[in-house]
Amino acid sequence: MKDHSDRIIELESQLAHLQRQYDELNQVVIDQTRDIQRLLKQALKWEQDLDRLKHAVEPRGELADEKPPHY
Q1: CA end-to-end distance (rounded Å), the chain
Q2: Which residues form a coiled coil (predicted)?
């Protein structure tokens, strides 16, 4: 009878350990998901800012077709 009791205690101990590991890993996944979402937002903002800068600097219309003065 002692063997069954010892096995149950060991299994409960292992289960508690696995549950703690599961909770820790789950928190890591939650944190990483939040970080990835934040980084994607930041990358999108930078991409939009870069597009705005490119459009502000690029010549428009007829100026783009003109040769530079050194030609």
Answers
A1: 100
A2: 1-56
User: Is residue 30 within 8 Å of 36, Cβ to Cβ?
Assistant: no
- What's the CA gap between 39 and 46, in Å, rounded? 10
- Model pTM score: 0.62
pLDDT tens, residue order, the chain (71 aa): 679 999 999 999 999 999 999 999 999 999 999 999 999 999 999 999 999 999 888 766 565 666 777 76
How far is Cα 24 from Cα 18, in angstroms, rounded to an integer?
10
